[in-house]
Amino acid sequence: MNTHAKSGYLFVAPFLLVFAAMLVAPLAYAAYLSLFREQLIGGTVFAGFENYTRALQDDRLMDGVLRVARFFVIQVPLMLALSLASALAIDSGLLRFAKVFRLGIFIPYAVPAVVATLMWGYLYGPDFGPFAQLAGKLGLPAPPFLSDDWMLGSMANIVTWEFVGYNMIILYAALRAVPHDLYEAAAVDGAGAWRIAWSIKIPALRPALLLCLIFSVIGSFQLFAEPQLLQRLAPSVIDSGYTPNLYAYTLAFTGQEVNYAAAVSFLLGAVIVVASYTVLFVSGRRSRS
Amino acid sequence: MKAVKRFSAALLVLCLAACTGDSAGDDGGSAAPPAAQADIDKALQTPTKLVFWTWVPDIQKEVTLFEQKYPAIDVEVVNAGQGEPQYTKLRTALKAGSGAPDVAQIEFQYIPTFSLTKSLVDLRPYGAEALKDTFVDWTWNQVTGANGEIWGYPQDTGPMGMLYRKDIFDKHGIAVPKTWDEFAAAARKLHAADPNVYLTNLASNQNGAWMGLLWQAGAKPFTNTGPESVTVSLNDDVSKKVGSYWGGLIAEGVVSADADFTDAWYQALNRGKYATWLTAAWGPVFLTGSAKSTTGKWRAAPLPQWQSGGQEVSGNWGGSTSAVITGTKNPIAAAKFAEFLNTDPESTKKLALEQFLFPATKAVLADPAFTGQKPEFYGGQAVNQEFARISDTVDKQFQWPPFLDQAVNDWDETVGKSFADKSDTSAALDEWQKRVTDYAKNQGFKVNE
């Protein structure tokens, strides 16, 4: 028993070491930092929860959180529906060139977010982007992709483009794990392809969908690269508080308010935990009923 | 998911950046005793390696001149990014206590920001004060601290003037405006005559140009009254005058507010959407490379003035210095290198003629090899001579805040945004003032408004 336990620890040690050094330690250090206040004049003083109370009253942070929450509510269902549809289509076996299709949808995920955003930023361009040129040829005004009203949608489009393939692969992998005798039994019972998809495949995908959903909660609330790059194209639309992560970054690297940024990051982490838990709770209750 | 990884990386960076082994350096109040000539000679003959961060392309040519004169010293030139990215790396290195360069390119506007955090070495002990007259007066004031410290040697400058399209002016019968009133009238006339053309573009993302225009108007937005106090005056009468002038022209639709240095902006310059570019002395060379299709159509003139018939004044946009960074093990060699680079006749001349930096030294500004150039792009006009003359008219008292990044960020989101949205610039100036003073107070400054 004793030697077993010892060798067990030995096996997990490499992971634990990296985990502690790369995750636990930075997190603990950030938590520690968030309790102090370093000023340009006067140095560092212990501030207790002052940074947190300031953050809770910070309208710009609140606006950012609400904005990404709105983003989540609109973008994620859309993206997951698309992923689900393409996973089912590939799995149905009815699709020609299924491999090409699968690869085609997945490729955007392999494109770095920065490159994807730059590319879309160009496509969105109000003066020389292809959409603007097309609209110009048709005598229409250029679609204002980068305007205040459209920005969140334009960004949702980029993120959807990037991650549909990724979620599709998760769902498709889960579909491959469904035993084929279920389909055969259903077919014997007279179920068609649609019925099989609805009654067997989608219920079987529930855990995978939940996984995708949780990833999406985290991804949405931590939006950073896309707004950060689009900021250059539309500086008056995207300010430094556009998303909470962008805000924390600006606080730390523009305002040198590292301690406050740490507190904001922790609060954002708390928001994500709560949102993820809510998703789990709601879906868990539904599956029981 | 990618975002998760990205975030932990960001956290890590955060921690690295924040590991403050803050050494309580002595305050810059009292100058260190001057280095003896014997020590200087010895330092320059001892084999030494210096690291120099700069983003000036091909500056190795001038560095080589120094290495030839002092063969014992080996200078490694590192491009750590232009502007902000370099400053971020510099701050990280300084906080980490290792990896910082010996000498770095620091723009004028960043000197108070870096001297406040004791990141720059006072150059007085290394003979800086004797070089005062080498440089144009206002540039020397820019590198001088509150207690007379010299924080860097000016390398290049950006006195502001107006580049204009002579062909467009001629076509619509517009005379080169001498005052801002004439400029406003010309803006209305031109846009009425051709709705696709704007007299100028005031970029809503370009705090540098805005500060230059404020500078010209004689505004004193920031005054560093003492090491722990700062006067912030961003919505005073002068600022409001400049703000409502530009906000008004933009809201009227006769001046555009497109973001600059973007693809669309380059295209617009080539296409003739803007009839002028209010820019700095580095603008002419820049434009030559960026708007090739308009060769021969541009000319240079001074900025329009607020008062007609008064003394001509201008502001500055851009330009930088070579500063010695705290923590260098070879301050003497580093200081002498920064000095050589920016004062040696051959080096400064090369900087102007081969790196196309607009000079900060009186000698090069008067050198016919520089002022006599008559580029074809400007129809053979001696543009360098024009800007050399403008350099003398730059107001000498302008100061920068000790927290530039924050002030600029807040400007983007208030005043700049008001230009982009055609909303109330006056209210935006109030908001800018409020945000900056709040920040300064949070940072422990005693703020005078």
Q: The biggest beta sheet of chain A, please? A: 2 strands, antiparallel
Level of helix content of chain A? Answer: over 70%
Order of helices and strands of chain B: HHEHEHEHHEHHHEEHHEHEEHHHHHHHE
CATH class descriptor of the domain at 34-157 and 318-367 in chain B: Alpha Beta
- H-E order of chain A: HEEHHHHHHHHHHHH
Might you state the CATH topology name of the domain at 34-157 and 318-367 in chain B?
Answer: D-Maltodextrin-Binding Protein, domain 2
Number of helices of chain B: 19
Shape label of chain A: globular
The class by helix and strand makeup of chain A works out as: mainly alpha
- Oligomer description: heterodimer
Model regions low in confidence, pLDDT < 50 over at least 5 residues of chain A: none
The parts of chain B where pLDDT drops under 50 for at least 5 residues are 1-29
Q: How is the CATH topology of chain A named?
A: MetI-like fold
Question: Strand share of the residues of chain B?
Answer: 5-15%
Please outline the major beta sheet of chain B: 7 strands, mixed
Number of strand elements of chain A: 2
Give the CA-based shape of chain B.
globular
Alpha-beta content class of chain B: alpha/beta
Tell me the helix content of chain B: 40-55%
Q: In angstroms, what is the radius of gyration of chain B?
A: 23 Å
Report the end-to-end length of chain A measured between terminal Cα atoms.
43 Å
What does this protein look like?
The complex is a heterodimer of chains A (289) and B (449). Chain A is mainly alpha-helical and 289 residues long. Chain A has a single domain, classed as MetI-like (MetI-like fold, Orthogonal Bundle). Chain A is 75% helix and 3% strand. Chain A is built from 13 helices and 2 strands. Chain A has helices at residues 2-33, 50-56, 59-91, 98-110, 113-124, 130-137, 151-176, 180-188, 193-204, 206-221, 225-233, 244-253, 258-288; strands at residues 36-39, 43-46. Chain A has a two-stranded antiparallel ribbon with strand order 1-2. In chain A, a hairpin with a 3-residue loop joins strand 1 (36-39) and strand 2 (43-46). In chain A, helix 2 (50-56) crosses helix 13 (258-288), helix 3 (59-91) packs antiparallel against helix 4 and helix 5 (113-124) crosses helix 7 (151-176). Chain A is globular, with a radius of gyration of 24 Å. The model of chain A has no long low-confidence stretch (mean pLDDT 90). Chain B is an alpha/beta fold. Among the domains of chain B are: 34-157 and 318-367, 3-Layer(aba) Sandwich (D-Maltodextrin-Binding Protein, domain 2); 206-238 and 403-449, no CATH class. Chain B is built from 19 helices and 10 strands. Chain B has helices spanning 2-18, 37-45, 60-69, 84-96, 111-116, 137-143, 166-171, 180-193, 207-217, 237-252, 263-271, 283-290, 331-343, 345-353, 362-365, 368-371, 383-391, 404-421, 425-442, and strands at 48-53, 73-78, 103-107, 153-165, 222-226, 229-232, 276-280, 298-302, 316-324, 446-448. In chain B, the strands form 2 sheets. In chain B, strands 1, 2, 3, 4, 7, 8 and 9 form a 7-stranded mixed beta sheet that branches. In chain B, strands 5-6-10 form a 3-stranded mixed beta sheet, covered by helices on one side. The model of chain B is unreliable at 1-29 (pLDDT under 50). The interface between A and B is large, with 48 and 47 residues. Chain B: This is Sugar ABC transporter substrate-binding protein. Chain B: InterPro entries: Bact_solute-bd_prot1 (IPR050490), SBP (IPR006059).
